[in-house]
Specification:
Layout: H1 2-15, E1 42-53, H2 69-78, H3 96-102, H4 114-118, H5 126-142, E2 158-168, E3 173-185, E4 196-202, H6 203-212, E5 218-219, E6 229-230, H7 231-236, E7 243-247, H8 255-259, H9 262-282
Antiparallel strand pairs: 1-2, 1-7, 2-3, 3-4, 5-6
Length: 286
């Protein structure tokens, strides 16, 4: 009875985010998890979204030169080995062309105003125009194929991880059950100034890709070249740094929307992390 009462008290910390219970699918086809937990074993569940900045020191092993996790994912989509989805609900697949379109910077409206044109900006002298025309012809003659404007894998340093934090009553422990990983265009690269989703991927599909490509899907061990790990193992062992951006709630609002951005948002993310840890500890209070 005391354990059950403690569970209820600790759960109140998390329910302050206005969370609602969600069901856990037990079928591999509909569950994107690499290791689904049967619904009958779930005592408690919260869906949590985290951002992974691959530029951080702790995340550099996933972002080593020519073995970037983003490069592994993009190559698998291009080769047809991996299916990308529109959102992290993973119910609407993207075609390869749609995925590549999302990886291409969008043209923004702009150009010279009438006043700027009248002032002479953008005009080219006749000699310069002839010189430019000659260069243009030369470039056309030497060009062997279409020029790609896609973002480089090294530019795409932002991932979003969606997980179910589940307490498994059969095993009496908390699990971080990763559902999806989404590839993002960072706001620093988007001309419109906000993050853009390139594609989302089922964790079960990513594990398959990582296992099938061990020579490139590497978590790089800077201390010991004999102890590099597969990216699938790195996620299992939680060998990365992340910060919470959202916990499931009725309004589907992020912590930044609720508490504000900047420092307040970071403090809210830290509080959310501590609440999850406190919940697990509270399970064993008597």
């Amino acid at each position: 009875m005391k354990v059950i009462k403690a569970i209820g008290v600790a759960a109140g910390i998390l329910f302050s985010f206005g969370a609602v219970a969600q069901q856990v699918s037990t079928t591999q086809s509909s569950n994107p998890s690499a290791r689904p937990i049967p619904e009958s074993d779930v005592l408690f569940k919260k869906t949590v979204w985290r951002k992974i900045d691959l530029r951080e020191k702790q995340n550099k092993p996933m972002f080593s030169e020519n073995r970037e996790i983003t490069k592994v994912i993009i190559s698998a989509v291009k080769s047809g080995e991996l299916v990308a989805y529109k959102t992290d609900s993973v119910n609407v697949p993207l075609t390869t062309q749609e995925f590549l379109a999302n990886m291409t910077p969008k043209e923004t409206e702009g150009g010279l105003t009438e006043e700027e044109k009248a002032a002479g900006f953008g005009e080219v002298e006749e000699e310069e125009d002839a010189w430019g025309e000659a260069l243009g012809k030369s470039a056309t003659e030497t060009q062997t194929g279409p020029v790609s404007n896609e973002y480089f894998a090294k530019q795409l340093y932002l991932l979003e991880l969606k997980e179910n934090v589940v307490f498994d009553k059969k095993r009496s422990r908390m699990y971080h059950d990763i559902q999806t990983i989404s590839l993002k265009v960072p706001s620093t690269l988007n001309a419109l100034g906000f993050e853009q989703n390139i594609g989302s991927f089922k964790m079960s599909d990513l594990v398959r890709i990582f296992r099938n490509n061990p020579e490139v899907a590497i978590w790089y061990n800077a201390q010991n070249d004999a102890q590099h790990k597969n990216l699938a193992d790195a996620f299992d062992l939680w060998l990365f740094s992340s910060y919470i951006t959202k916990i499931s709630n009725p309004g589907d609002r992020g912590l930044g929307d609720i508490y504000g951005g900047g420092k307040k948002g970071l403090l809210a993310a830290q509080d959310a992390l501590e609440a999850l840890i406190e919940y697990e500890y509270s399970l064993w209070s008597y």
